[in-house]
Amino acid sequence: xxxxxxxxxxxxxxxxxxxxxxxxxxxxxxxxxxxxxxxxxxxxxxxxxxxxxxxxxxxxxxxxxxxxxxxxxxxxxxxxxxxxxxxxxxxxxxxxxxxxxxxxxxxxxxxxxxxxxxxxxxxxxxxxxxxxxxxxxxxxxxxxxxxxxxxxxxxxxxxxxxxxxxxxxxxxxxxxxxxxxxxxxxxxxxxxxxxxxxxxxxxxxxxxxxxxxxxxxxxxxxxxxxxxxxxxxxxxxxxxxxxxxxxxxxxxxxxxxxxxxxxxxxxxxxxxxxxxxxxxxxxxxxxxxxxxxxxxxxxxxxxxxxxxxxxxxxxxxxxxxxxxxxxxxxxxxxxxxxxxxxxxxxxxxxxxxxxxxxxxxxxxxxxxxxxxxxxxxxxxxxxxxxxxxxxxxxxxxxxxxxxxxxxxxxxxxxxxxxxxxxxxxxxxxxxxxxxxxxxxxxxxxxxxxxxxxxxxxxxxxxxxxxxxxxxxxxxxxxxxxxxxxxxxxxxxxxxxxxxxxxxxxxxxxxxxxxxxxxxxxxxxxxxxxxxxxxxxxxxxxxxxxxxxxxxxxxxxxxxxxxxxxxxxxxxxxxxxxxxxxxxxxxxxxxxxxxxxxxxxxxxxxxxxxxxx
Length: 612
Prior knowledge:
By secondary structure, the protein is α+β, with helices and mostly antiparallel strands. The protein contains 15 helices and 20 strands.
C-alpha cells in the first residue's frame, strides 16, 4: 500500500507584508510632502497675488476720489482723464484675485470669508471703473463741453437720449455691484479687513446714488420735455409770506407746454380762476380731512396744506383740469427764494417798470408788492409776470446752462422746487428723489422727521416770521432710539404792525387772529412707526392733536406771536429699533424735512446713533 499523500504547506513569504507596509508608508509620506509643497506653493502664489492686488487697489482707491470730484463738478474731461489712470489698476487687482486658487481659498476655514471679501472688493471696483464710470464721465463731458444746448426756448435732447442706453446699462451693473458688496457680512471678517469693507460699502452706496440720479435724468428729462409727444405742465408760484407746508400758498399759476425739447409759456391764471369746488374736487381720506380739513380739496390755495406734494399736486391738477379744461402731465413749484437763485443765473429782469434781481426778488414779491399794488388779482398778476419772465430768460439760451443747473440744484436741495408727474412710470422714478416731496409713500422718506408750518393768520405776515429747526440730542434706549428737536419761531413784525401794515398783510382779524400777530399751525411728523412724545411749548409740557396718517402719528399744535415775540417748541421722536439694548453700534443719518421759509431751507441731514 502506498502511504497517504502528505499535506503540502502553502508558502508564506515572511518579507512581503513588510515590504507592502513600508511602500504604503512611503507613499503617504510622499503624498503629504507633495501636498505640503503644493499648499506652500499655492500659499506663496496667493500671497504674491494678494500683495499685487493690494498694491493696485491701494493706488486705485487713492485716485478714485479725483474721478468722483470731477463727476460732481460736471468736468467730464477731467473725469475721463482720471479714470484712464484708475482702470489698469483695478483690472490688475481683479486679475490677481481670480482663478481656481482663490476659489478654493475662499472656501477654506478661518480665513475663507476674508479671501472672498478681498476678491469681491477687487471685482466690484473693476466693474465700477470699467462699466459704470465711463458712461457717467462721457455724459458729464457732453454737458461740460456744451453738448446740451438751450436756444430760443428749446433744449437739445439728442445728447441725453444718446446717453440713456449706456447709463441704463451702467445702472444695471451698479445694482449687481451693490447687491454683492452689501451681502458681505463684516461680522465674519477679521478686524483688519472689516473696516475697509465697511468703507467700500459706504462708497458703493454713495456712487449708486450718483448713478441712479444720472439714470433718472436721462430717462425722465427727454420724456418730460416732450421727446415722445407734447406735454402740458402747471407751475405753481408759491408765496412764502403766507406759509403752507411745502413752502407757501399758491400765488399764481403758469401753464407750460413742452414738445421735443421746445418749452413755451402757454398761459397764466390767478388763483381766483381755479375753483373753488364745494364738496371737494375728490374725496379725502379720513386722516387727511382730520388733519387739514375739507378745504384741502375745496380751494386750490389749500391743496398745499399737506406736506405730501404728490397729494397736493394731484388735487391741484384735478382743479386745473376742471376749471381750465386742460389735462396736465405734471405740476411743479417754485418759491420766491428759488426764483432769486434763478436770477443769479439769468441776471435781472424788468417787470412792469420794476427791475428785479437776485438781491431784491424776495422783498419785492413778498413785501413791496403789497404796499404798491391792490391786493388780489393785481398782486397775483405781478407775481405770475415775474415768474414767467425769469423762466423765459432762463430758457432763451442766453443763460449759462451750468449756472442754471447749479441754481436748480440749490433750490431742489432746499425743497424749494418740487416736481410731480401724472405718468405713473415717471412718478415712480421721481418718488425717492429730492424734488418729489413725497413723505407719505417714499421709501427714502420712511425715517424722515418732519416739521411743517401752515399759516393760520389768513394774511401775509409770514414775511416777518423767523424760524429754525434744530436737532438737540439723540440717545439709544431699550426700545430703540429717541431724538429730540427744537423749533424756534420769532415775529420780526414792526411794533405798530396792526395799524401800519395793509389789512391784506395782517389779515384784518378775519381768522380770529388779532391784526399784527402771526398764528401758525405746526405739524410734527415722526418716522413711520414712530411717535411724538414730551412736547413742550416754552418749557411747559403741552398736549397736541395726534392723527395716524400713512403710518405716522402726526402731532399738531398751534402757536401765536405778537410783534417781537418768540416761542420755542421741543419734542422727542421715538423710533422703533431692534430693541433689547441701549448700546450704539455706529453713526447713521436721517433727513429732517421742514417748510422752506424765506430764511431757512426745508431739508437738512443730521447724524444720529445707530441703536440695537
